[in-house]
Amino acid sequence: MTHFQTPKNLWQHGSDENKYMKKRTVPAVVLLSALFLSGCTSRRPGDNRASASLQIKGSDTMVNLGQAWAEAFNKLRLEVNVAVTGGGSGTGIAALINGTCDIAESSRAVEEKEIKQAAGNGVTFNQEIVALDGIVVVVHPSNPVKNLAMDQLREIFMGNIKRWKTIGGPDIPIVLLSREVNSGTHIFFKEHVLRRGKKKAVEEFSPGALMMPSSFAIAEEVANNENAVGYYGLGYISPRQKVIAVAKDDRSPFIEPTIESVRINAYPISRPLYLTTNGRPSGLVKEFVDFVYSKEGQDIVKRTDFVPIR
Amino acid sequence: MARFRKVKEFVIEKLIFASGIASIIFVALIFIFLLREGVSVFKTTSIGDFLGGRFWYPISDPPKLGILPLILGSLLVTAGAIVLAVPLGIGAAFYIADVAPVKIRHLLKSCVEVLAAIPSVVLGFLGITLLVPFLKHTLGLPTGLTALAGSIMLAFMALPTIISISEDAINAVPREYKEGALALGATHWQTLTRVIIHGAMPGIIAASMLGIGRVIGETMAVMMVTGNAAVIPTSLLQPVRTLTATIAAEMGEAAKGSPHYFALFAVGLVLFLISFLINLTADLFLNRGKKR
């Protein structure tokens, strides 16, 4: 489910130490504990140039984007190993707090409780918007429904509209597909569509909504199930699912989600994508973030079907 | 020299004792840890609301932490798996132990072992690509991601346990019983259903219980095919969310120290208690079998 690149240098580094330990145990132990202690005091991954590796973790929506950046960045800096893994925005931010990654990719802003938690671990967040993403509502290609207003989407995903017939489709039940709660996409959809942008509102997804482990799983189920309606990031659009045009309210026109409509903020369900670091980026982390903002980095954003900010 | 041997023996004895006792210590430590983290959820949610609540919205504010749909989901999927796996497993065990020619017996036994070795994520993958669309089309369901799909996957996983332990139990029935029955003029079928099955019954029940224990703790395959909707299930043909899938899907996100985090530990505690009860029952049956 998550894409994974092994940080090769790290592993080799580890096995070298093991060989060393067999020969001369005592100095090795001293060395290791020294390493360990220094690791504890200067918990700033990224400015440790010797290891030359970058751990990037977080949003599943951004995994492909992050990996494309990592590959291109790697061509500029051959000696650096960049590992990109998914798991969800929350997972990435938790990893940043625990010091197990250098950069967290997230499809939402950090939350109050995460900031508090981070403060407890001596971590201060620095969040920068690096791209934009539209959340696309998709149905089976055979479904005649092609336009929906935000309020209709809200009623559908809260389980109040139960059959396609109510909104101009055939007389078959609606199967709701949602992401799991660890997904930034899930949280964004809930707050933006169900709760109309009010974080503290009480609307929830229908308990009958199927919680899918990944955007890929949603894409598969929608492609194979004429009852299904699901949502995912702009990057997952394929001919095997039909994209719904969305209107902000009764008076607004129905807008297809495209790079252009998201950029000019016409498409109503879009969101910024962030890179989060511990404090202001420095060293290798800064180089990577700068690369993301460069023309090449932003071209990659466009190539992976997200919307560049420059 | 004799003294050295004595010391050596003493040390070895203590080491073996330590390894023996280790598993007990580990189980106790795991239980204490689960209990310590899990009970904290009852500061914010009462036991009744936790076990009997109908809604699971863990990240809302305030969170709704009712695990009744999850418990029922787990039980339903497990019950479905038992109904499928137990008769099939026991039938297979009788065939392998008592009916099959030697060559087929060896072939079948290795096949059962291979089945046991298939990683559950691989089974889940087969389930999501083959079984789920198949169920949807043949049964005309709104979606194939159902409790039934989970039950079928789990039945596959429980089969090896049920077959091999039942087969041992059948083989352990004294030969004289079978010979006596046949000598009295009973047919092979009568011997099987009226004599051998009685001798092997405690072992077969234990095998089924251990199979169930395997099933209720299984996570990956279930998470992939059951749809994970936290509703109180009314039939096998609708999506359910299990206890295990909930922990697996949400643990990575839960902020440490939040009610959600503690609730997931409490879910683990509930699972631990359920599988503990199942194993205990299995043990009781196994011991009863030995005393006879």
Number of domain units of chain B: 2
Could you describe the largest sheet of chain A, including whether it forms a barrel? 10 strands, mixed
- The counted number of beta strands of chain B is 2
Helix and strand content put the structural class of chain A at alpha/beta
Number of distinct beta strands of chain A? 12
Count interface residues per chain for the largest interface.
Answer: A-B, 32 and 31 residues
| H/E series of chain A | HHEHEHEHEEHEHEHEEEHEHHE
Strand order of the largest sheet of chain B: 1-2
Largest sheet of chain B: 2 strands, antiparallel
What CATH calls the topology of the largest domain in chain B is MetI-like fold
Overall structural class of chain B, as computed from helix and strand content, comes to mainly alpha
Mean pLDDT of chain A: 82
Radius of gyration of chain A: 22 Å
DSSP strand (E) fraction of chain B?
under 5%
Which percent bin holds the helix content of chain B?
Answer: over 70%
The stretches of 5 or more residues of chain B where confidence is low (pLDDT under 50) are: none
The rounded distance between the terminal residues' Cα atoms of chain B is 46 Å
Task: Using the CA coordinates, give the radius of gyration of chain B.
Answer: 23 Å
What does this structure look like?
With 310 residues, chain A is α/β, with parallel strands linked by helices. Helices cover 39% and strands 20% of the residues of chain A. Chain A has 11 helices and 12 strands. Chain A has helices at 8-23, 25-41, 63-76, 89-98, 112-120, 150-157, 184-194, 215-224, 259-263, 283-293, 295-303, and strands at 53-58, 81-85, 103-106, 125-139, 147-149, 175-179, 210-212, 228-233, 242-243, 245-247, 270-278, 307-308. In chain A, the strands form 2 sheets. In chain A, strands 1, 2, 3, 4, 6, 7, 8, 9, 11 and 12 form a 10-stranded mixed sheet that branches. In chain A, strands 5-10 form a two-stranded parallel sheet. In chain A, helix 3 (63-76) links the parallel strand 1 (53-58) and strand 2 (81-85). The radius of gyration of chain A is 22 Å and the shape is globular. Chain A starts with 7 loop residues before the first helix and ends with a strand. The relative contact order of chain A is 0.18. The model of chain A is unreliable at 1-50 (pLDDT under 50). By secondary structure, chain B is mainly alpha-helical. Chain B folds into 2 domains: 2-43; 51-291, MetI-like fold (Orthogonal Bundle). In chain B, 76% of the residues lie in helices and 1% in strands. Chain B is built from 11 helices and 2 strands, in the order H-H-E-E-H-H-H-H-H-H-H-H-H. Chain B has helices spanning 2-38, 47-52, 68-99, 102-117, 120-139, 147-171, 175-183, 188-217, 220-225, 243-250, 259-291; strands at residues 56-57, 64-65. In chain B, strands 1-2 form a two-stranded antiparallel ribbon. In chain B, helix 3 packs antiparallel against helix 8 (188-217) and helix 6 crosses helix 8. The longest helix of chain B has 37 residues, at 2-38. The N and C termini of chain B lie far apart (46 Å). At the A-B interface, helix 4, helix 5, strand 7 and helix 8 of A face strand 1 and helix 5 of B.
